[in-house]
Amino acid sequence: MPFAPALHSEWLKIRTLRSLVAGLGALVLVTAAFSALAGLDNSGDADIDPLFSAFFGVSFGQIAAVTFGAQAVSSEFQGGALRVSLTAVPRRGRWFAAKVTAIGAPVLAVGLLTGGVSLAVGRAVLGDRASGMSWGEGLRAVVGCGIYLALMALLAAGLAALLRSGVATLSILIPFLLLVSFVVGDMSGNVADFLPDRAGQVVLHETWDGLLGPWSGLAVTAAWTSAALLAGSWSVRRRDA
Question: Which residues contact residue 219 at a Cβ distance below 8 angstroms, ignoring those fewer than 6 apart?
Answer without folding.
Answer: none
